[in-house]
Amino acid sequence: MAKVYYEKDGDLKHLEGKTVAVIGYGSQGHAHALNLRDSGLKVIVGLPASSQSRAKAQAQGLEVFDPAEAARRGDLIALLVPDPPMAQLYKEAIEPNLAPGKTLLFAHGFNIHYKFITPPKTVDVIMIAPKCPGHRLRELFTEGIGVPSLLAVEQDASGQAEQRGLAYGKALGSLKAGVIGTTFKEETETDLFGEQVDLCGGVSAMITAAFETLVQAGYQPEIAYFECLHELKLIVDLIYQGGIKYMRYSVSDTAEYGDYTRGPRVIDAHVRENMKKILEEIQNGKFAHEWMEENAQGRKKFMAMRAEASSHLIEKVGSELRKMMPWIQTAKEEVTAAQAQAKR
């Protein structure tokens, strides 16, 4: 069983008198910086001069420097930028400023596990990975509630890496909920697998295939949308609340019987074999190198796939149907090209 740490296991004294340099101010970066600051730690932010987030961070009372200067000033450097540009940023701005005794912190193990970044042996390398988006991490912190995180130590040069990680997790608010011990390898590989096979890739492909099956059989796209996409939230909420068992308890016996007898026909042995192949590509680094190469080549395939998916009939039908449901935040559904690009 996994080891779980709570409030009693972390002590902020391990970061007292130290400067935490948060590199990046996106979804995770802004939440980390503000939570740490509000927990009493000294926090600075590292952003390039061209970043639109500089004004936002400064307006929230944080000192902002360019990444290299922030890394030079920081005792603990939290690299909270997207995976693709992180290695280059590290090489140009962070690595030259890594004095012995400093700590490098990540919220995802991708670049360390696949060795796109190889820190010197003289620094601690740790990970605190909150299991929620940054805005939710911040919201719950302000409410006095923490969200679970994962803790991993890849390199313990100081002999205090775990204690520093737990202090960071406490300042983030996560020790209130619990921090689970893991490794960079386990976090990276399971995270990618979940995204590709289940949470994003598997679910979106299944929804789209089910929608297309009904429409091609002559059913109205609007009805197909409700049955194959809209109602999924009801099911996911039940699973989220009490597991698969609670979902089955909550739906009709007809639905439950269909679950047992037809579900395994959809997710059959062939699908399971594909899942194993995808896991192998994650484990051997094929996916990681493919993704990094795609970014190096200008993301042409990625952007083409994004455009094709955005123009699918299910998106057009959904956009119209959601206008019938004012309780849904429709403002968030119309993602412009600029907004999509900005999330990088």
Layout of secondary structure:
Elements: E1 4-5, E2 19-23, H1 27-38, E3 42-46, H2 53-59, E4 63-65, H3 67-73, E5 76-79, H4 83-94, E6 103-106, H5 110-113, E7 124-130, H6 134-142, E8 149-155, H7 161-172, E9 179-181, H8 184-199, H9 201-216, H10 221-230, H11 232-250, H12 253-266, H13 269-283, H14 286-296, H15 300-310, H16 313-321, H17 337-342
Parallel strand pairs: 2-3, 2-5, 3-4, 5-6, 6-7, 8-9
Antiparallel strand pairs: 1-9, 7-8
Describe what this molecule looks like in 3D.
The protein is an alpha/beta fold. 55% of the residues lie in helices and 12% in strands. The protein contains 17 helices and nine strands. Strands 1-9-8-7-6-5-2-3-4 form a nine-stranded mixed β-sheet, with helices on both faces. The longest helix is centred in the C-terminal third of the chain and has 19 residues, at 232-250. It starts with a strand and ends with a helix. The model is unreliable at 333-342 (pLDDT under 50).
What's the short story on this structure?
With 344 residues, the protein is α/β, with parallel strands linked by helices.
How would you describe this structure in keywords?
344 residues, alpha/beta, nine-stranded mixed sheet, 17 helices, 9 strands, globular, disordered C terminus
